[in-house]
Amino acid sequence: NITCNKLNLAFNYQQSMKKDKILVIGACGQIGVELTLALRKMYGEGNVIASDLREEHELLRGTGPYVSLDVMNKEMLHVLVIRHNITQVYLLAAILSATGEKNPLLAWHINMASLLNVLDIAKEEGLDKVYWPSSIAVFGPNSPKEDTEQHTIIEPTTIYGISKFAGERWCEYYNHRYNVDVRSLRYPGLISYKSAPGGGTTDYAVEIFHEALEEKSYKCFLREDTYLPMMYMPDAIRATIELMESDASKISVRAGYNLASMSFSPKEIAAEIKKHIPDFTISYEPDYRQAIADGWPGSINDELARKDWGWNHEYDLPKMVEDMLTNLPAQLA
Ligand code: NAD
């Protein structure tokens, strides 16, 4: 018994001394930049390695280690994980909804292979945790349109949605079959002022601020009455970190939690912006992205995330618009 206790103590000591070492893949994208900066604040700059295909983002420069990485190169990724004693991976590299429709096979290939490379290395190396975002794009025209629940009809029609749904199934499979602690959120459209969006259908809700400030007018590629679930980036970053910091026993969904904060239409966000910029005008010229948006829910039910790990949003439409218009001008200068 004494030997056993000693072993337990030694194990606990080793565990408590074990350093978290995080790899962020796709760190130069809309989410990656802000998530990397937030993780560096929490874990120490040297313990969060940023990586991407692109050149290092200017906001990341000088804030911590950066490596150039193509996540499709599994061998290189594996070497990186071993060499840096990585314990957690955040995989953000992906082809997004609008870009995916232009080259469906490429989107499928990249979105699937990147996830499988990471999950498989996590299994082989016994990584502590993996984060991989899903999306509201998993839902399709046959899903309920309003207050769409976690478990409902899921029949995505875009290649992006199909790849996210398949990815969710893989995450659950690796969790059940190999005990990989992978966690996921179905992000709504994300709005931010620091890093540009990367080819999604909800990008209009970021572009509109740039055009409102620079041109005082915006031509929207969606119809005025297109309601979509959206979220301000600080809420999305906090949700991601809170999910990853939660005790594993609280995580009942491995496939991607529904996550929500606000839903609005282009007409509504334009009216909110007009309160701050009275001469702002908007016109509408829907393109191929309208069909993508029409297949998605207008609002999401996220009560499971709220119940399981205490999710609570902070930003609604007026608060988000005010914050964007306060902070974006300095970024544009
Ligand atoms: P983004 O396009 O802005 O960034 C993705 C980054 O991945 C880019 O910097 C890109 O250079 C990098 N990348 C692409 N291919 C790569 C490769 N082969 N190897 C390494 N890096 C590569 O995307 P984002 O908006 O930051 O989204 C991140 C994740 O969140 C994606 O999985 C996306 O599907 C998901 N998501 C985003 C939103 C949103 O509104 N932004 C909504 C729902 C889900």
List the topology elements.
Layout: H1 2-17, E1 22-25, H2 30-43, E2 48-52, E3 66-68, H3 74-83, E4 88-91, H4 97-102, H5 104-125, E5 129-131, E6 134-135, H6 159-178, E7 182-183, E8 185-187, E9 189-191, H7 204-214, E10 217-220, E11 228-232, H8 233-245, E12 257-258, E13 262-264, H9 266-274, E14 281-284, H10 289-294, H11 303-309, H12 317-332
Parallel strand pairs: 1-2, 1-4, 2-3, 4-5, 5-7, 6-8, 8-12, 9-11, 10-14
Antiparallel strand pairs: 11-13
Bound molecules: nicotinamide-adenine-dinucleotide.
Nicotinamide-adenine-dinucleotide (NAD) is lined by residues 25-26, 28-32, 52-54, 69-72, 92-94, 96, 110, 133, 135, 187, 189-190, 197-198, 200, 202.
